[in-house]
Automatic annotation (TrEMBL):
The keyword tRNA-binding does not apply. It comes from Bacteroides graminisolvens DSM 19988 = JCM 15093. The gene is pyrG. This is CTP synthase. Residues 5-268 form the CTP synthase N-terminal domain. Residues 1-268 are annotated as: Amidoligase domain. Catalyzes the ATP-dependent amination of UTP to CTP with either L-glutamine or ammonia as the source of nitrogen. Regulates intracellular CTP levels through interactions with the four ribonucleotide triphosphates.
Length: 533
């Protein structure tokens, strides 16, 4: 196509309006037209990456194939576009400053005073263009975290201002705002949008497209009014109304010609409207499914919608491909006991034992693993969940009541889950786990193989502890098989109990690689087993 085009997505009025979904939807529509697209997220916080953040702060920590601990929006980008993102797709203010300070220490700035403008903004601009320059993308969509008006967003908005000036038609700004409905007055209000656009304009950035989040349909006269007050063309004011699933948003945007508006504004031909066939087929199956599959999520962040985002999306995609509707029951592991486990898990079709760190709620996970093993309920243990499955097995089948992970008891005499050798000397917590995609070889005689239908797989990891190979033989002799192993390190990556319907634990996180058009085989086979229960 020639030069890379840059689309910036900013947000106003309130946070959590779904910039990630809008960015992904725009990306999807452009990709469907044959363009090479990537999406990146710039987060204004000071942390180097979200890897050390508590899920209460920012929800799930997503992991890229190259081992970057990333914002959960990268999960949306991958699920919508079917692309793989990398470390370069997620930048924080901390990274920007670190890189500038490192350069300063090296003497790269030749004695100059280092300032937000131009040094920080130059570093932001360099990062905006990095992927476009390196991989020759047709479009690079850059989502700016936070809300216009935040102090910490200022250097990013200033960088957008400069880039729009430098790149002309090759840069465009999509601003997402919110149009509240005042029930008492029975009216939709555009004033917050007007103020938010004014705030952007005061920083020298004129949005080219406005996407208005709303719970009610916005009529033409309201859109015209917004266009008039905000210096935006009428056709460039679109609504993003609440949808039954986030995967409908690309179609809702396409109906309003958002992709065409963007192409025209960037001087590109519009050509034929892509029909998005497989995507529509997925949505059709999703809306036609009526039978429910009930899955319990046993974890400690159950009150947080975003903490297990990728797991939820993977389960719901798999339910769709099994023509079922997903019903999630959140089970707080801290409150799960031998006394109430039957009431909490007895009626569900399948149980996911969630990943996590630290000992809070851990005993409840053992209770869940024991109950589902004894009652043959399809069970999927992911990362810490796999470790819990193994520990429970050691406690109640191998007869080691004190079996544990050294994460929870450093002195446990039966360290079923041990600290990895290369982790022992590590003191810095940021970015030092076993991270990213590693190879795993699957035993052909296993349920895991039946799901994957291939021996060599690559899956993403994020953990410090591992299955202790000293116990492997005892596990296998007693019915829990180590069916997936890393060929280089010999680390156990998948365990399963073949005698049960579906009882599998993975040390890796399959949820990071399940996409709308390429759902993950393990989730598909887990849901299938759950339906059969
Ligand atoms: N806390 C465990 C470990 O570090 C599991 C991590 C996880 O579930 N992501 O090994």
């Amino acid at each position: 196509m020639g030069e890379t085009k840059y689309i910036f997505v900013t947000g106003g009025v309130a946070s959590s309006l779904g910039k990630g979904i809008i960015s992904s939807s725009i990306g999807k529509l452009l990709q469907a037209r044959g363009y090479k697209v990537t999406i990146q997220k710039f987060d204004p916080y000071i942390n180097i990456d979200p890897g050390t953040l508590n899920p209460y702060e920012h929800g799930e920590c997503y992991v890229t194939v190259d081992g970057h601990e990333a914002d959960l929006d990268l999960g949306h980008y991958e699920r919508f576009l079917g692309i793989q993102t990398t470390k370069a797709n997620n930048i924080t203010t901390g990274r920007i400053y670190k890189s500038v300070i490192d350069k300063e220490r090296r003497g790269d700035f030749l004695g100059k005073t280092i300032q937000v403008i131009p040094h920080i903004t130059d570093e932001i601009k360099r990062n905006v263009k990095l992927l476009g320059n390196k991989y020759k993308f047709d479009f690079v969509i850059t989502e700016i975290g936070g809300t216009v008006g935040d102090i910490e967003s200022l250097p990013y908005l200033e960088s957008i201002r400069q880039l729009k000036w430098e790149l002309g038609q090759n840069a465009l700004c999509v601003h997402l705002t919110y149009v509240p409905f005042l029930a008492a007055a029975g009216e939709l209000k555009t004033k917050p949008t007007q103020h938010s656009v004014k705030e952007l304009q005061s920083l020298g950035v004129q949005p080219d497209v406005l996407v208005l989040r709303t719970e009610h349909n916005l009529n033409m006269s309201l859109r015209k009014k917004v266009a008039l007050f905000c210096n935006v063309a009428e056709e460039a004011v679109v609504q993003s109304i609440d949808a039954s699933t986030i995967y409908e948003v690309p179609l809702l945007m396409q109906e309003q010609g958002l992709d065409e508006t963007i192409l025209k504004k960037m001087g590109l031909p519009t050509g034929e409207k892509p029909n998005l066939e497989p995507w529509k087929e997925f949505l059709k199956r999703r809306s036609q499914a009526t039978d429910e599959v009930k899955i319990a999520l046993v974890g400690k962040y159950v009150e947080l919608q975003d903490a297990y985002k990728s797991i939820l999306e993977s389960l719901s995609q798999a339910a769709t491909y099994n023509d079922h509707k997903l019903k999630i029951e959140y089970v707080q592991s801290e409150q799960l006991t031998e006394a109430n486990v039957d009431e909490k898990l007895g009626h569900v079709n399948g149980v996911v034992i969630c990943p996590g760190f630290g000992s809070r709620g851990i005993e409840g996970k053992f209770v869940a693993a024991k109950y589902t093993r004894e009652h043959d309920i399809p069970t999927f243990g992911i990362c810490l969940g796999m470790q819990c499955i193994a520990i429970e097995f050691a406690r109640n089948v191998l007869g080691y009541p004190d079996a544990n992970s050294v994460e929870f008891n450093e002195k446990t005499p039966h360290n079923i889950i041990d600290i990895m050798e290369e982790q022992k000397a590590i003191t810095n917590m940021g970015g030092t786990m076993r991270l990213g995609a590693f190879e795993c070889i699957i035993n052909k005689n296993s349920k895991a193989y039946q799901a994957y239908k291939q021996e060599h797989i690559q899956e993403r990891h994020r953990h410090r502890y591992e299955f202790n190979n000293d116990y492997r033989k005892q596990f296998e002799d007693n019915g829990m098989k180590c069916v997936g192993v890393n060929p280089e390190s010999d680390l156990v990556e998948i365990v399963e109990i073949p005698a049960l319907k579906w009882y599998i634990g993975t040390q890796f996180h399959p949820e990071y690689s399940s996409t709308v058009l390429n759902p993950h085989p393990l989730f598909i086979s887990f849901i299938k087993a759950a339906i059969g229960k």
